[in-house]
Design a protein that fits this description.
This protein has helices at 17-32, 65-79, 105-108, 115-131, 140-150, 176-180, 200-209, 246-255, 270-278, 289-295, 321-327, 330-342, and strands spanning 4-7, 38-42, 56-59, 83-86, 98-100, 134-137, 157-159, 187-191, 214-218, 238-242, 258-261, 283-286, 300-302. By secondary structure, the protein is an alpha/beta fold. The strands form two sheets. Strands 3-2-1-4-5-6-7 form a seven-stranded parallel beta sheet, covered by helices on one side. Strands 10-9-8-11-12-13 form a six-stranded parallel beta sheet.
Length: 343
Amino acid sequence: MKKVIVNGRFLLRRVTGVERYAREIIMELDKLIEPDEIEIAVPPEVKDIPNYINIKVVQVGRLHNILWEQISLPLYVARKKAISLNLCNASPLISPGIVVIHDMKIKAAPQYFKKKFIAWYKLLFNNVAKRAEKIITVSEFSKREIEKYYLLEPEQIVVIPNAWQHYERVGFDENALIKYGVKKDKFYFSMSSLEPNKNFRWIAEIAKRNPEYIFAVSGAINKMVFADELGFESPKNMKFLGYVSDEEAKTLMRDCKAFLFPTFYEGFGLPPLEAMSAGAKQIVVSDTEVMHEIFGDSVIYIDPDEYDVKLSSLSMKNLNLNAILEKYSWEKSSKLMRELIRR
């Protein structure tokens, strides 16, 4: 069996859904594998290196960021006669190895991205489709999308989903509501990167129609990636909180009237699953194929293009939350990953 070397560039970035996936999969894999079976190669500028028991972390090369990923990493992998495991969409063009593609937004919703970003990721994904040892994705929906856009056979792609157990390690910050000026059960909450695809316009329009409630939104927009920033004016009762800590987010999820996720397109949809684990009373998501796959009848569905929604009608009782939470775990996903890399 070839040694597996993980692309550790994700350790440079602030944790969003993609980086969360990488961190949690690696942490669980560390418990399952033999010593020296997996190694993580990281760029020289990585300072915060996690402590693992069985996984060795090695700082490699002198290059940085994308150049490190495209030159230093594949040279090191070749020298070790190993195979790379790339958990965050990007991979070396020379030898992509095993690659996790989280979604097909660049194909399905290119209007939200800058042209340079689209061109780069089309090059990366075309290369992966032709040359990767194996492709992994996070949902059956995303698998079908990859098959459709790259004309691949189902057996070329393996589904290893996201999970939520990282929230078990997070406490509550009881000062969060005071800090952000909201009252328990009197506000709606949403959290994700503030990209146009997430459809925060829907929240703005709903907020205009419901001035008696606060609509709190956390996250930040990456102006290097997304084309139009938010693209709308927000009403006074829509609060942008910026980046919030995990403890603050968990508290806001627990104490909000409902967690809102009106996104147009997702590969999985991690924030609603986190909100479910945090104890959100109601979860409202877009009526899309992937949301039904992940959440079944345990959430409230809305048309992401329809603004004339009565908030009083957004209520559901006896949500089957435990069945959803039991379905997904980082341990299960890591066991699937271990089986794949050992094959």
